[in-house]
Structure formats: structure tokens, C-alpha cells
Amino acid sequence: MMYKTVIGLEIHAQLKTETKAFCSCRADVFDLEPNTVICPVCTGQPGTLPVLNERVVEFAVMAGIAMNCTINRRSVFDRKNYFYPDLPKGYQITQYFFPIAENGYLYLVYGEEKRSIRIRRIHIEEDAGKMVHQGTESITGSSGSHLDLNRCGVPLIEIVTEPDLKSPVEARIFMELLRDTLRALGVCSGDMEKGALRCDANISMVDESGRSSNRVEIKNINSFKFVEKALEFEQERISKALASGVDVAKETRSWNFSSKETYSMRSKEEENDYRYFPEPDLPELIISDDLIERIERSLPELPWEKVERFMEQYSLPGYDASVLASDSEISSYFEEIAQATGKPKESSNWIMGEVMRLMNDRQLSLEEVKVSPENFKELFDLIEQGKISNKIAKDIFPVIVENGKSPTQLVREKGLQQIDDDTVIEDAVRKAMNDNPAAVQQFRDGKEGVLGYFVGAVMKATKGKANPSKANEIARRLLRD
């Protein structure tokens, strides 16, 4: 039997404010010593009162507008009540009944399909603390647990989608799109490994008769890859259960990135378990038209807008445009190089190839691997004029990064100028033919694919300095004689 996958996401994004949501404690608490950024307000001491951070509201409105939501002029804070050791107040300040933004969407592009993924709501809430378990990643089997309350009160927005996603890969792509959008706005770093972006995924399966399985929630997913992998695991687990005639439990599960499996945490809570009621210590939040208009005017170019512009302005393929537009620094760098060189496709290839490879291999920032647009133009000119091969250009690129010398200077110093001398290339081809007469006969018997062997032999003999197109031409001519 065929099953349809139904997925919805609940994404928590930590806002890049200087201070917490309801107090003046520092908000960026990642990697700080435990319990060093706390105060009576964020730890819920008796008699304290929360005061709303205005910047939190502005960032939430900005995200809502970017995601095509209706911004509610009136929203209300509520208390979500539950007992857990890392929640010292015994409740979390959130927005349940009247969120700040509703009924939005983002367009998801996957393959040839483009469709809108509806966003049910965006609401403001505060984070809870963190339990650090001894000897294990979870409380099960732990010898003890410590509390770090630094994250208490850190400002979040929760973005809740409708169950419009049809596959685990779509869920991953949507998460990446959301990350890129929040980064472009400057409201969230998007670093999942630092807990700045966290995803809870809900999945169910529907059979051909329309019967749906129970909905399962997966928590604690800390990378885009694991969002996809965790949902794939559940997709298979639920399908097998339905095929055998049983349903899965309605429960909350967690992802174990070591075993690449989900495991049961607890039965799924119902909404009424949290006993929501309006927060008595905070007034209604009233959003003015002036604030919305000011934020609308200040919005930067968003990733999907940049993709469309790159495809139109620079004639880039969709894939190139999507990769470059996903990071504002990378996209700005690309435009500088494309405009300096007049070669947008070549600029795109080099950034997605050599620049990003160097960043990944050496764990460097873009600033650390930046080659000036003028040096890129010089490099492209040397290739176009036939003075160096593409291979040599790639070989000297890391050296340009390290010492800042111009490509022309490096080529001259290292004697790397491309060899165009027909006699040198002919000698290398003839030697290869003498060394491997069987390959010569294969070519003459119609197996022209062996031509690459002779071109490769020329490049090896000249240490990559031979003009590759000339080597190809001469090798073909001599082999046919």
C-alpha cells in the first residue's frame, strides 16, 4: 500500500537582541560559564516583574512581514504552565491565544515544483534553562543532572507551519530557507549547532483509503541533515506499523544522532495539559501602523528575491543563484567579483568551488579567504589569454589567499606561464605514444576515449603547464598519423 507523508514544523529561533526578553541580562549566552548570566527576573524570584524588550517586538514583526503574515495590531502574552527543573518559575511566558503574527507563507522550490508552505502563526516566547546530564546525553541512565539557567528568558520566536510538507527532504529544504530568511533579516544567527535555531517536527502517514496514523512529534533535532534523517526514520517506522495493521502511539520522540534512530520520550501532551491563561504581569501588546510601515521600509532583499534577481541579472542557473543567495556575505562578494570581471558564471563557479572549498577545508571565514575582485579579474584574464591553465589558476589560488600577491606576480615568480610551444608538446605526446603503443592502437581502432591518457601524459610531463586545448589538438593529430 502507498502512504502519503504529512509533516509540519515548529521552529524556535533565538533573536539576536543584546538583552533577554523580559530583563536586562545578556542574551547571547552560548558557551558561557553556567549560571553567570541570570538575575531575579529570569530565574523567577518572588516579587519580580517582567519588562518587555522592545527590540524583541521589532524582530518578531520583521520576521512576520518577511513571511507574508498578518501582523496583529493587538496580541497578548500568556503563561504556559508545566513543571520541569530547568523552568524555575514553573511557567513559560509565551503567546498562545493571540500571537503577534498569523496566516503567512513561504514559497518552497523543490525540483521543478514551487508551492507555498503556509505558516500558521509566529509568536514571541522566552526560553527555558538547560539540564546537563552526567555520563550520558539524556536523563535516562544519568548519574546526576546539573542545572544551567543562563538560557532562561532568552528571547525566541516560534514559527509554526501548517502540515504542508510532503517529505523529509522538503522539511530540510524549508528549514534551510527559513534559516536563510532569518539571517538575511539579521534577527537570528541560524546556528543550529549553537541552539539558536531548533526544530520540532510532527509527522503522520495517510494510507490510500484516507486513514491517518497518529501524529508523532520529534524533538531535539540539532542539524538540517538530522531533520531529514529523523523524519525518514519515522516515515519508515510508521509505514511498517500501518502495513502490519497497527497504529503508532501518539507520543513525543527524540533523535539519537549516534544510533541514527528516534526513541520514545513520553506520551504526547494535550494543549489543556499546559493550563494556558493570560500573563497578569504584562499588558496587551499593541502594534502601531507606523511601526509596521517603518519595518516594511527597512527590510533587506530577501533570499528568494535575490535568487530571482541573480538569475535575471547575471543569467545564472537556479542552483548557482540559490547557493549564492543563501548567505548575504557570499552574495555580496559574488556581485563584486562579477562586476569587476564581467564574467558572472565564472565568478559563481570559483566562489562555489575554490572559495567555499578553502573555507570548509581550513575552517576559515569568508573574510579570511577573500581575494580582491581586481585579483580575480587578473586571474581570469591570464586564463583567457592562454598564459595559464585553469588547473594552474586553481593551484595558485590558495597562495594568493595566503600572501596576497597578484596572480601575475606569482606566475612570474614560480615560472608557471602556460607552455604553448608546439615542439615541447609534440615531444611529450610522442614519448607517451612510445611508452604505450597498445593505447595508440586502441585509439586507431576507434576507442577515442583513450585520448585523455595522452593529454594527461602531456600535462604530467609539463607539470600542468601545457596548454590543454593545444595538447588535445596535437595528440589527436599525431595519433591519427
Write the layout of secondary structure elements.
Blueprint: E1 4-14, H1 54-66, E2 70-71, E3 74-75, E4 78-81, E5 91-94, E6 101-110, E7 113-126, E8 130-133, E9 145-148, E10 155-161, H2 168-185, E11 197-206, E12 216-221, H3 224-243, E13 251-256, E14 261-267, E15 277-278, E16 285-286, H4 289-298, H5 303-314, H6 318-325, H7 328-341, H8 344-362, H9 366-369, H10 373-384, H11 390-403, H12 407-414, H13 422-435, H14 437-444, H15 451-461, H16 468-480
Parallel strand pairs: 12-13
Antiparallel strand pairs: 1-10, 1-11, 2-6, 3-16, 4-5, 4-15, 6-7, 7-10, 8-9, 11-12, 13-14
Helix pairs in contact: 1-4, 2-3, 5-6, 6-8, 7-8, 7-10, 13-15, 13-16, 15-16
Explained architecture:
The protein has 481 residues and is an alpha+beta fold. It is built from 16 helices and 16 strands. The chain has a nine-stranded mixed sheet. A three-stranded antiparallel sheet has the order 5-4-15, with no helix packed on it. Strands 3-16 form a two-stranded antiparallel ribbon. α1 packs across α4, α2 (168-185) packs antiparallel against α3 (224-243) and α13 crosses α15 (451-461). The longest helix has 20 residues, at 224-243.
Work out the oligomeric state of the chains in this entry: single chain
Q: Mean pLDDT, as a whole number?
A: 91
Task: Determine the fraction of residues in helical runs and give it as a percent range.
Answer: 40-55%
Number of helices: 16
The N- and C-terminal alpha carbons lie at a distance of 63 Å
The biggest sheet, with number of strands, parallel, antiparallel or mixed sense and barrel status, is: 9 strands, mixed
| Percentage of β-strand residues | 15-25%
**Largest sheet: spatial strand order:** 2-6-7-10-1-11-12-13-14
Quantity of strands, as a count: 16
Which structural class is indicated by helix and strand composition? alpha+beta
Specify the overall morphology.
Answer: elongated
Q: What Rg is obtained from the alpha carbons, in whole angstroms?
A: 29 Å
Low-confidence stretches: none
